[in-house]
């Protein structure tokens, strides 16, 4: 054949309309362009999704999940109508009902609870992106039992950051991608924070900047890292403290930064006999005191012109006070943190620890630079330039989901701070509304009054024993035992304990469990089989031990079968949402930003956005926040709430296009009835940039503070010092030492004294009962999957349809295993039998698998023979919410003793080669659930435009 | 058998940076989405929710472990699609002339009307870059988004293949590799870009940028020696440290 070319239409029509909204294929919240095309009947349908170039989060790029959104939106697993359970719990026998009937049932259960004892409702939301709304509903109902999923996700990371420096990673801040020269990331799986981290790594590599990845598993970001540190899981804190030891010993710290912007110079009471031993010395206004190097006299830290002295001590009323920095020197110069002393436990050679610490020092100090940005600090001192220290860090659950995770996260922040890299050019930068210190956040509230709202927000940051959520008799006020002596600083609650505590009636029984987007009978619980047992178990009267369960989900998840009443949610393209500054914001280090979702298509099923359903239900229950004075419904739906709700005068869910004197304005302002239209016209988001000169040194920068007040982020300027020394923790230690009115139970005293160290420490997580279980087992999500959502997506499941147990070469050889063999993985709690695969780029004593893939048969509209349901598996079966018995008559939680974060990365196992199970199915193989949705189609030939 | 043009005006293609590809599959799914809705038949999926799902993709990411002689094993993510070869064996093997290489830009395409689904081209391609769509029975392959790159209905900045537009880590680059002054040619020159399997003689247009050397801080004695002085101690215990501190603060 000779060459022949057909004529091509090189400019075909791309779509009939582009509708811009916010992705919800994971928690990253990128902007998307949804291309709509007319189908043959002339109806506009979703045809193609791409990233929105103008959007602050993703700037046009989009991950695999985002582009596959069309298959989620059209997934056969979508629920179709409200349902009530008609068979036994777990049978999957449901009857579709009307919304009116659904509301009648829900109100019939909830009204008597509210009238008698609101704590009998436990309302927990999972991957909720509307927590400022759902918490308002729960507060108005009056139950103390509300939280979202942070307790089993990453509360250690968030809380440690806020207590230390007024923010953590991800929503709280980001590396200065434009200036950083060394980016070190710890324990980041492939999913958080999805596109921005990938964009950042691409950006800095283009400039020749380097990446160091610290992670037992070398995939994803760690695969492209220039240096990989395959650390032993759970020892990150020890490794970090060892680097701090090296840096302090070498004098490689930013002393000016430590003195000016942190509490390193703040004076501590050093009299062991004093009831204030270890507390900070303050003036009568409560301001921390430092010695002013100019006068040699004590002065409040923020007085104009004060030069805090890191070295000077102060004796008053017979009590010696020493600066925090003295304690740090004593603690971290100790030989126990020398690289040689920690190398074996961390699985990193002493030489390598020193080399890494030296590289941090080299880049922070030898590659320091100045930016020509003039600024004025909170003491009134004017600076001609800003000093840049181009080392930045990022970390996530790999270091936080351990029982030592809070202190490990604090250690990492201490490392950043002594290098002087936080909020400086080239370092880690906060995103508005952060920085915001723990003291500027609410404290937890738990006072229950029948027929009345709770006395304040549920969640917050305790400052000492007085703020714990305890009843008058000292027992826990909350069903999850958050903010108790067992885990005093549990800022996100403990969702993972709700079902087991409710089942045990400890601290009390509940009537109704109400959940949203939380797959508790599957991957969102530790001890999955045990939890399903608790959900279906009946008492001696034949009643379910957890009497009633209301659940809202858009899809046929595993949890649906275990619920009594289902409120079907919409897909993310069919709903209103706000990505609010009151919630988990999407700001950039240089800008404040928020965004909306809006129904780019209307649902074709009898479903309703969960938040709109709460507006309806709240009105039926007469909740004050959802009812007008005349008793009528206050918000017709969630969109109505987003526009009209005001949290404080002039501050509502959305900061863009609020009504000012001269028309719409950003920040503070009155209600604007066209606000959502303004957002839609702008591509679904609002962004306003921080003025130059105000965009670094934010906690101490007078211009930033003023701008933040103008925008409604604060009501007054709130400059503060970073807390290397966490005084609230010292207050819990003091209580454990016998000081104060509120006293811990005796069995917790020793633990509180040890674990609540106000300077970061490292301790081995509890290994009692783990004898013989020497291998660490981890999970992570692939970049192309999110929680359990991915498998219902015909495109994504072709990328990741199987999850073998990845085993390092050495263990494969030791156990005589080859790819495709089966192994029994055993923990003190249980056993699973799973297919294995060798992986060399892995810590030699760690095994792992993808955690988003294994599915229960019958869920997610997958065929019962789908590999996700036959070969796929959960590690959760091996993890108990309690530690093995110690023989002291008590059962200790498998959680961080400070925050209660679920310690699922502390899992230890043993491996044994076994024959393939019958049918070559992973074990345990639970019986199929009956699907509440019709069978999925066999083949797809998807094309809207013809 | 089908003839190739003797030469093409441009050599449009992709440059893929293996140093920054994190293996996220964003390019794979963006490609699937665009090309399902655009050029030719949709990319179908068989047994989409069943035991053995299998669909048509024009771009896939493979992952390979590499064990260097010294040091830790590495993982390399390797995206692969049609390389738009200058001597494309998939074209010359085509019995109907359906496979062809465009004269103006070198893009290799399948004219689906003439494709009989014989599969010879897929056999001939040494890279495994072509997939027969099971629903339509025609051969599918990367079009380099020929319906995007010249598309006057798209803003100019978006006239780039969907995989390039979506790549979060900026590991994919598009341009004229026939023009030595183009950005992509310069990138290939700077980073030592390579042909995939050059011994096959296909002269692929697409290029790969190799990963930079890894784990230098652990392995390079020179690096270690340069860095060691940064940790020369000023003190070894707290007391000495505090006297160093006092002296240093005086100087600040």
Automatic annotation (TrEMBL), chain A:
Molecular function via GO: 4 iron, 4 sulfur cluster binding; metal ion binding; molybdopterin cofactor binding; oxidoreductase activity
Compositional bias (Pro residues): 925-935
Keywords carried by this UniProt record: 4Fe-4S, Iron, Iron-sulfur, Metal-binding, Oxidoreductase
Transmembrane region(s): none
Cofactor(s), names only, from the UniProt record: [4Fe-4S] cluster
Primary site of residence: other
InterPro entries with a match to the protein in the record: Asp_de-COase-like_dom_sf (IPR009010), MoPterin_dinucl-bd_dom (IPR006657), Mopterin_OxRdtase (IPR006656), Mopterin_OxRdtase_4Fe-4S_dom (IPR006963)
Gene3D superfamilies referenced in this protein's UniProt entry, alphabetically: 2.40.40.20, 3.30.200.210, 3.40.50.740, Dimethylsulfoxide Reductase, domain 2 (3.40.228.10)
Residue ranges of every copy of the 4Fe-4S Mo/W bis-MGD-type domain listed in the record: 16-77
Region (Disordered): 920-946
Subcellular location: Cell envelope
Any single Pfam family the record assigns to this protein: Molydop_binding
Any single GO CC term annotated in Swiss-Prot or TrEMBL for this entry: cell envelope
PROSITE patterns: 4FE4S_MOW_BIS_MGD
Family: Belongs to the prokaryotic molybdopterin-containing oxidoreductase family.
PANTHER family per UniProt: DMSO REDUCTASE CHAIN A, TUNGSTEN-CONTAINING FORMYLMETHANOFURAN DEHYDROGENASE 2 SUBUNIT B
Stated name of the protein: Anaerobic selenocysteine-containing dehydrogenase
TrEMBL record, chain B:
Residue ranges occupied by any 4Fe-4S ferredoxin-type domain in the UniProt entry: 12-42, 73-105, 106-135
Key words of the record: 4Fe-4S, Iron, Iron-sulfur, Metal-binding
CDD domains: PsrB
Residue intervals passing through the bilayer: none
Keyword Cell membrane tagged: no
SUPFAM superfamilies: 4Fe-4S ferredoxins
One Pfam family from the record: Fer4_4
Signal peptide feature range: none
GO molecular function, one term: metal ion binding
Matches recorded under PROSITE patterns: 4FE4S_FER_1, 4FE4S_FER_2
PANTHER family in the record: PROTEIN NRFC (PTHR43177), PROTEIN NRFC HOMOLOG (PTHR43177:SF3)
Name recorded for this polypeptide: Fe-S-cluster-containing dehydrogenase component
